[in-house]
Amino acid sequence: MTLMSSSKTPSPPASTLNFSVVLSALVAARVALTLTGLPDVLRDDHQLASPLTSFSQLQEGIYLFNHGVDPYSGGTFRHSPLFLTLFATILPNSPRICSLLWTLCDGLGAWALVQIWRARQNVTSSERDGLIAAVYLFNPYIFLPTLALSTSSLENTLMLILLMFAARGKASPALLGLAFLVHFSLSSIVLLSPILLLLNTDQFSHLASPRPLATSIRKVVPLLGEFVVYFCLLALSSTLVSGGFAWIPQTWGATLMLPDLTPNPGLWWYFFTEIFDHFRPFFLMVFTVHLLIYIVPVCIKFQHDALYATFILLGIVGAFKAYPTLSDPGLFLSMISLFPEIYPYLRHPIVTSLLHLHAFLLLPLFHHLWLNQGTGNANFFYASTLVFACANGAAIIDCLWAGLRIAIGKPVEGYSIVQE
Amino acid sequence: MLLLSFFHLFLYLSSWTWRTSATSPDQEQIVRDFFGKDGSTSTSGHTNNWAVLVCASRYWFNYRHMANALGMYRTVKRLGIPDSNIILMLADDASCNLRNKFPGSVYANPGRDLDLYGDNIEVDYRGYEVTVENFIRVLTGRMEPSVPRSKRLLTDERSNVFVYMTGHGGNEFLKFQDNEEISAHDIADAFEQMYQKKRYNEIFFMIDTCQANSMYSKFYSPNILATGSSLVGENSYSHKNDNDIGVAVIDAFTHYVLEFMEGINKTSTKTMQDLFDSYDVSKIGSHPGVRSDLFNRPLDRARITDFFGNVAHVEVTPSIEAETPAFVPPTTPGQKSERAIPSQSALPSLTTSQPLMDMRWLNNWRVARAWTSVALLGALIGWVGLQK
Amino acid sequence: MEAEEANQGPRWKQSISRLRQKFKGGANANVARLRRRKAMISSLTRRLPFFKFALFVVGYIWMLAIPSPRLGRGTYIDENALQPSQVNTYWNWGDVHAADRYLEQLEALRDVNSTSEQRAHFLETEFKKLGLPASTQNYNFSSSAGLITGTNAYALLGSPRGAGTEAMVISASWLSRTGEGDGTLNLRGISTVLALAGFLKRYSLWAKDIVFVISDGYLDGMHAWLSEYHGSTHKNLQSDPVELTSGVIWTALNIDYPGHSFSHLGVFFEGLNGRLPNQDLLNSFQRISRNTGHVPVTVYDHIDPREAPQKVEGLVSNLPKILQDNPEIQAFSYQAKNVARHIGYQARGRASGVHGLFHEYRIDAITIFAIPATGPHGFHAIGRIVESTLRTMNNLLERLHASFFFFILTDHDRFMKIGNYLPSAVLISIAMMIQGLQTWVRAGWKGEDETKLNEKQDGSSGVTPTQQPKRRPVGRALAIMTVAHLVGLVVFTALTQRLFIENIQLLAPIMFILLATIPFIMANTIGDTGPLSLVLKSFNLCLASTVISIITVLNFSLASSLAVFLGIPLSITSSSSSILTRVIKTALYSMLGFGWLLLGHREILSAVHDWEVLQVWFAPFVCLVYVPLALQALTVCVL
């Protein structure tokens, strides 16, 4: 859906409205959405909040913490201790205020997305700004998890902000943001190398004119060191607040060991409920390593455009990570709006959109048939997650293809292109 | 101490010499003669009888399986096997089921003439204890030390064992309570282990389930006679339904076996051949099978009571003065109390104010930690933000 | 990657095999591959129209064949625990006498025009006389049609030896389902429940609590009772809490016995929003009724004409005699009647009886309807059948799950599995999807009109449409679709206003005219023709196809109705230049999309009532999904 709407290029005369006005209006509309009864209904929906991102579990953890019980001693709280730090001290944790906070974070994310776009185009404002913000704020994959107060929405905002810094060449904030992000969601470590690459190159679009990497690898080392320092400081902070190391197996360990098999729109849970126990460690390793194998090829292939490499890897992480919510693929889909240059080279945008439309309708329907109505079973919902995975896969493959194809240029009548 | 160990050595040696003298050739001959004396009718050579009766299913609608097992229980008990020699594994949720119109009773016939449950039932493995693991442990005797004698199959090389199983099964497996399965290989291996550990003289294995005959097809240990209710690919059918209880009360095969058994008493000379000849396919509805290739005796020489009864040969002989060694407990009572018990006073005394203080202190410490952590984060963000 | 000159020319018309033969030994395998691929694409595009046509034909024929006696299979019982019809029943003439006594008292209450509260009080007292804890519950619904009030009475028989964590319900409503609650009273049904309460209490074998509910009105009373029992709140419902609660309700039987005596027991099973109970419940009841009660069972109140040959009616009566006597045609016509009734209930999300309310709470329930006749059965038969059915339900160890939840019952003992009927609608939706994608490709073709395009695709050029992209007006098409959906929302909001309901005769035609003009307004505002029409058509088809294929699992009847109404019409939308064709098309599509505003006033009222009182989503579905699709189709035609 976003694909379709975003393929409207800047050709029609856009309104000359000030971007900040447009953004405020969009955010205001979103705030109005939080005032409906929706947030309470969606709070514990499996598709919008995983055990690692659910707001209910966050509140549970904070309650335990405030009452002197180590929240990590049980099996319910799997959020990073940094969330504990923030919500036990400076941030409020009443659902009403939080839904406002979450929505404002989404607004911030949209603003950051527009900043990335501006940085990439090297302009101070453009006609497309409002559209990009709208594509982010009114992407149902983005705003439904936000209404459910899933912390994955905050991760998305953080991701966009750190990308904004990276695109502006501000290394320290970007690396600190990434360190935070990895603390919140371990799978984001995949994005480390393209972001380091981005910090060493520029953010402009070079998709049409690929060239070998100009910078030397030696420049990366201090940045990597800086990241490690931030990361360790955050780990120290986490240890400090939780009073021990119990948080490590409960947060990062959960991503790797998959102790909680609550259904989610990802691909892991069903597989690991069905598998025999003695194969479990092996397949956990396979599923984890599977995420990592994409890093090198994508970074090599898109060494000329690190932002695009980040974008592709973001899509891959969103589709294949351990505890995804709808907002993870949603971020990827909304980010397509940053790269209008690839649109003419997309091969099957309508197929991807239709797959997403099907998945978007099937996921809640089969979830309902299985868990509410009782006439379906787990296989129904699993089938819909497969459709969802196909849709995500189709989007990634198409973007990958278009990103490479653009380098060859426009097709010429009578000529075709084949791969040797 | 040294003295004590010498004493032990003496004990061991004396018992060894006694044992070797007991199995000296002439004594063995006496034993052989003893069993051979009645050779014209029975050649089994067993001195004791055991029965393992397993109902592998649970739930009200499987009433008939419980009735099957209880019917067999009644028969073997009537023919003289005492409760101490019967291992009964039963889900036992029929008699006291909420749906039972006749609480506390289990009937195996539609007229409800005979209450199989009565008040003299000893179920050794009940409810969720009826598992594949427990069944195999019973057979092979590999038990936790804490398991009481009544739950063990204390057989020896002179024991004839009757194993009866019923439940829902398929080709080469029998379901245990909708939860797990035992395969034909598992039972065959368990029997082989029993053979190697000299835990039986002969086994009679009977099974009533769908495709039952597949269950004994994997046996490979000697002296096993087996029979099952139905061929591979064939169902085993229930026999009769009681319209007040509302469910089928017994399976056909077991019903006709029990009917045959009603004509047997402890002095009966009916043989296994007679039992197998009594199978009537048209009545049972399935094709019962018999496997006797591992069994060393002709079927018409193997009495029913060799397995179902506890008919032991008794010979009154002039008393033999055997030298029984005196039993001395290995440790004297006085040794036990020598260990020092840690004194209670060494533990820190608990007062009421201390935990409260503790709590408050912990609470402050926790808040401090949280704020320190926030400060750390703030410092980090601030430092990064101030950086150019 | 490398660019290769494609070999253009008449050779392109050659078949794949000849190409392969020619290039097999060639220097460059890539060229061969490229050609092969292009040949494949062109042959595929050439065959696509035929394929699409075949899908439509097969889909529609399949739908028509659903009632055929040759398809489907006999019903069977899947759950081992049920053990139906295996018990002696002890309901006897004494109990029948008790039921007669209750009936007399109820008739007396009816004759003095007693209020709901008086009736409920009487029932409560009678239950208490039997020694059962009993209570009453007042409720009132406010809807745009007015206020609905009533009082339910209910009693609880706790499981004598059980923990009371599970329950089953025996219910009867004050109004019979005859004519969907047209005022016929269900006095005998209520008498049966009262007499059963006294009778069942004598047995100690109940593993579950039994709840006796006498609900007021037709559906509203039970809806209020169930909502309170399960603690779900509705904005427009005010009711007393249910004081006596039991465990989780697994199964429920609703007894509907309006006549003096009955010849058959009809079974009604469709619930709200197209939900069906587990088939095991139906099958158990049927087996018990035949074997224990010796009462024949039918689906709904349709008595098989083959049982009573003199009463030939309906479809068959118009056929020549020789065909009328053909058993297969007789069976088909009877089963077609059943299927049509089923689709009528399910597509509109309407419950075929009080049982349908239970399904919302995951309770398997059916209505036993005593089809009024002059004999031979009465209280004696129905009591025994219910007693035996309760014994069967009592045997359950877990919720009914083994048998089918998705089925079409073509006869009382025949049904179709989901796999045998679902593909019919899915095939049509696939055909629509193909049409939509084809239109999308066509819309992206630069500067060519349709005839030229076809020539191209026939193979005169090697350029496939994807290589010559043209900007499609996607944004504008999406904008039109958004507007169409907003219009749907406005229509829905309007329908649920009291003003509209009260003046429906006047306002519905006005709304019809407004709806029919909206596409013209949109077309004039946008003022662009050509590819926009194609893109909109493509999106419309893709959306309709998605909706149909997804709804199939939720409510097959609705999906197949959509497939019938939208399948062909949406596929043949096109803009035309002639004014006359435009006018005709506008009229036709308006009638298809909004004709219900002119013709179906009663349907509108009942659909709105169902939405407001029972949360049946048929009305919002029509307004928010069906109307926009039709609006978009109309827009395609006028663009």
From TrEMBL, chain A:
Q: Which UniProt keywords apply?
A: Endoplasmic reticulum, GPI-anchor biosynthesis, Membrane, Transmembrane, Transmembrane helix
- Highest rank taxon of the organism: Eukaryota
Q: Which GO terms describe its biological process?
A: attachment of GPI anchor to protein; GPI anchor biosynthetic process
InterPro entries named in the record: PIG-U (IPR009600)
* Pathway annotation: Glycolipid biosynthesis; glycosylphosphatidylinositol-anchor biosynthesis
Is Iron-sulfur tagged as a keyword? Answer: no
Major place of residence: endoplasmic reticulum
Q: Give the Pfam families listed for this entry.
A: PIG-U
Give the CC-aspect GO terms. GPI-anchor transamidase complex
- Residue ranges of the TM segments: 131-154, 174-199, 220-248, 268-294, 306-323, 353-370, 382-404
Cellular compartment(s) = Endoplasmic reticulum membrane
State the membrane topology. Answer: Multi-pass membrane protein
Q: Does the keyword Secreted apply?
A: no
The family assignment reads: Belongs to the PIGU family.
Would you tell me the protein name for this molecule?
A: GPI transamidase subunit PIG-U
Automatic annotation (TrEMBL), chain B:
Q: Does the keyword Membrane apply?
A: yes
Q: Transmembrane residues, as ranges?
A: 368-386
Example GO CC term: the record gives: GPI-anchor transamidase complex
Could you name the active-site residues?
A: H168, C210
The record's region (Disordered) falls at 324-348
What is an annotated GO biological process for this record, any one?
proteolysis
Citing just one GO molecular function, the answer is: GPI-anchor transamidase activity
One Pfam family in the UniProt entry = Peptidase_C13
> Signal peptide location in the record?
1-22
Pathway-wise, it operates in:
Glycolipid biosynthesis; glycosylphosphatidylinositol-anchor biosynthesis
Keyword annotations for this protein, in alphabetical order, are: GPI-anchor biosynthesis, Membrane, Signal, Transmembrane, Transmembrane helix
- Asked whether the keyword DNA-binding is assigned, the reply is no
* Family according to the record: Belongs to the peptidase C13 family.
Under which name does UniProt file this protein? Peptidase C13 family-domain-containing protein
From TrEMBL, chain C:
- Does this entry carry the keyword Translocase? no
Q: Alphabetically, which GO biological process terms does the record hold?
A: attachment of GPI anchor to protein
Q: Which Pfam families match?
A: Gaa1
Ranges in coiled-coil conformation? 99-126
Region (Disordered), start-end ranges: 451-471
Q: What segments bear the compositional bias annotation Polar residues?
A: 459-468
UniProt entry keywords in alphabetical sequence = Coiled coil, Membrane, Transmembrane, Transmembrane helix
Regions that span the bilayer: 48-66, 421-441, 477-495, 507-527, 547-567, 579-597, 617-638
Q: Which PANTHER family match?
A: GLYCOSYLPHOSPHATIDYLINOSITOL ANCHOR ATTACHMENT 1 PROTEIN
Q: Which InterPro entries match?
A: Gaa1
A single GO cellular-component term from the record reads: GPI-anchor transamidase complex
Q: What is this protein called?
A: Gaa1-like protein
Q: Which organism is it from?
A: Crucibulum laeve
